Amino acid sequence: MQLSFRWYGDTDPVTLDKIKQIPDMKNIVSAIYDVPVGEVWPKERINSLKASIEKEGLSLAVIESLPVHESIKLGEADRDDYIANYKESLKNLAEAGIKTVCYNFMPVFDWTRTDLEHELEDGSTALLYDHDFIQKIDPVTTNLNLPGWDESYTKEEMAALIEKYRHISEEDLWENLGYFLNEVLPIAIEHDVDLTIHPDDPPWSLFGIPRIIKGRESYQRLLSINNAKNNGICFCTGSLGCLEENDLPALIREFGDHIHFVHMRNIKRLDNHSFVETSHLSKEGSIDMKEVARALKDINYQKTIRPDHGRMIWGETGKAGYGLFDRALGATYINGLFEGVE
Ligand code: DNO
């Protein structure tokens, strides 16, 4: 496996010169953050992102994410324009030598948590998801600063968007995902780029809006759209692990040919669908990380893994889930797990 680290570009307080001091860290996962969703990523921007990473002796291994415009997820009349732009961005990325591109098909809200600074017993802070709270609130009127939300929407725009999704079923969303993949996969295949879909986080419907990438049945259906290896999976242990029924090692063994990117982190499942993010260690959460590593070793996984969210420790402040220290500890733990299982 190739260890990697997410870097949010020049404004990220976690700088490349620090990242490269993490043992065995050579690959960067990044994206272009200031091109509005749906527009083409220009070649020059991709090349300059790549150059800034290479200047530090690291390599840009994965794009996370090339986001999918809501018109595509909603199946609206102008989706073809956005799909054409998506294809163009994919080609530009392929020409720059990028082989793995991550995306998600979560309507409106990407990853959702209710508390970004939940204090753990040891004084560190972590991300928490309280399901009862989510069920009680209206996402438009509640002033929540959730990490995965597209902040470019006004409240009115968000309300209108949510209203549209309330008329969309899971079936409709699957149909729209199929339409999108049937269009973009030929380009990915032609340029040998692996598209990897991130699971819904958490993997269930929120605010009456459908979500479809949740576990085994979702992956079977995804691959029934197209079984090319380029129709890939970003295997996120923390997202899939929110559902106890998801047997992570079994999923890895079953869908391994399509797994081209892995996010490793641990969560502790609490009552009634709530969960808290813990350190990466197996014994601190609900996920047996060693068995995940063993399954990846069994399928001879050679691609990229990144330590996912960390807690905030040692007084660090910064982007929720994406500080340096605890993710670096996670990276070192992952290295140890693989050294052990190999
Ligand atoms: C959160 C991330 C997600 C992920 C996207 C992929 O920490 O795992 O925001 O990047 O869902 O498209």
UniProtKB/TrEMBL annotation:
Domain of life: Bacteria
Keywords, sorted A to Z: Iron, Lyase, Manganese
Gene3D superfamilies named in the record: Divalent-metal-dependent TIM barrel enzymes
Cofactor dependence: Fe(2+); Mn(2+)
Pfam families: UxuA
Known pathway: Carbohydrate metabolism; pentose and glucuronate interconversion
Enzyme Commission code: 4.2.1.8
InterPro entries according to UniProt: Man_deHydtase (IPR004628), Xyl_isomerase-like_sf (IPR036237)
Transmembrane feature ranges: none
EC class (word): lyase
Keyword Manganese: yes
Reactions it catalyzes: D-mannonate = 2-dehydro-3-deoxy-D-gluconate + H2O
NCBIfam families membership: PRK03906.1 (NF003027)
PANTHER family cross-referenced by the UniProt entry: MANNONATE DEHYDRATASE
Family: Belongs to the mannonate dehydratase family.
Known function: Catalyzes the dehydration of D-mannonate.
Protein name: Mannonate dehydratase
Taxonomic path: Bacteria, Bacillati, Bacillota, Bacilli, Bacillales
